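Q: I'm building a small set of examples for a reading group on sequence design. Run inverse folding on the following structure and report the sequence directly after it, with nothing in between.
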């Protein structure tokens, strides 16, 4: 803890909040932040410096301000990440190194003593320092208030560049709000002509925002499933529960800020988090779109 404090003195740009995390078992929503070092696109991602601070610190400082969560914990397989988080005052659970996805890591922690009585679990991405609480609340409300087994979010694609980008995950939904399919392909496909700009600003042209809330039973069902052919083809784990018949509700939210997957994302994030918050070159994240899913 002292070593972390010496390396990273307090930064006034990072919001902090005194949250009574000790009130374990008193609420309904458990937030779990999966954080692993073995990222293929950005090595040691949770510890990657953003304006001189570890990425996981920016994420945790935002999470701890969120009143929608009754308790939050970081789930990691790295003792180095754990030490950084403990120095921040964040509860930490060590997990297996064998998990193929963040959802599996979340499920391991959710079943442990002290957490098993929370009926709703939120998967809070460990690389989303600009996650909006309103978006997380919208996903949680789908399972807590509206009866969906899994809740997630989408936002209008906005620009044709995002529509055709395979790193941007698209989603189409039924009139009920139920997810019909997630894909890296441009769905829905307009056969006769390219969608006009104004069409991309509304449904059905939606990109997925990688926020998930689950009922406890749905989370168990999800991780008990074997990977499917569609999941392997698209490299989208949410296709596994979708194929199995789990009801995934999708709510439409406003503009979503970027996550951090690459070195280029780091530069954009530093612009967003820096003083004055200048406009990123090439458009904002909501204009470019994001292909991030729970990993």
């Amino acid at each position: 803890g002292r070593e972390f404090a010496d390396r990273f003195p307090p930064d006034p740009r990072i919001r902090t909040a005194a949250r009574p995390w000790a009130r374990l078992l008193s609420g309904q929503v458990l937030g779990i932040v999966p954080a692993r070092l073995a990222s293929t696109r950005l090595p040691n991602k949770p510890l990657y410096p953003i304006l001189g601070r570890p990425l996981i610190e920016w994420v945790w400082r935002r999470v701890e301000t969120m009143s929608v969560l009754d308790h939050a914990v970081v789930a990691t397989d790295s003792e180095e990440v754990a030490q950084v988080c403990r120095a921040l005052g964040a509860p930490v659970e060590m997990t297996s190194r064998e998990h193929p996805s963040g959802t599996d890591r979340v499920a391991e922690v959710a079943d442990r003593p002290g957490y098993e009585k929370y009926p709703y679990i939120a998967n809070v991405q460990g690389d989303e320092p600009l996650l909006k609480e309103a978006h997380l609340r919208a996903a949680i409300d789908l399972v807590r208030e509206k009866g969906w087994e899994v809740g997630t979010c989408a936002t209008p694609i906005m620009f044709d560049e995002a529509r055709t980008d395979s790193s941007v995950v698209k989603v189409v939904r039924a009139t009920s709000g139920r997810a019909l399919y997630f894909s890296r392909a441009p769905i829905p496909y307009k056969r006769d002509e390219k969608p006009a700009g104004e069409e991309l600003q509304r449904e059905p042209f939606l990109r997925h925002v990688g926020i998930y809330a689950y009922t406890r039973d749905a989370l168990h069902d999800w991780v008990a499933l074997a990977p499917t052919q569609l999941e392997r083809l698209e490299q989208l784990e949410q296709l596994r529960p979708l194929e199995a018949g789990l009801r995934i509700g999708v709510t439409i939210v406003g503009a979503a800020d970027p996550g951090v997957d690459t070195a280029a994302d780091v530069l954009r994030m530093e612009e967003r988090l820096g003083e004055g918050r200048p406009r990123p070159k090439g458009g904002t994240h909501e204009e470019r779109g994001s292909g991030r899913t729970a990993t």
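The longest strand covers residues 206-215.
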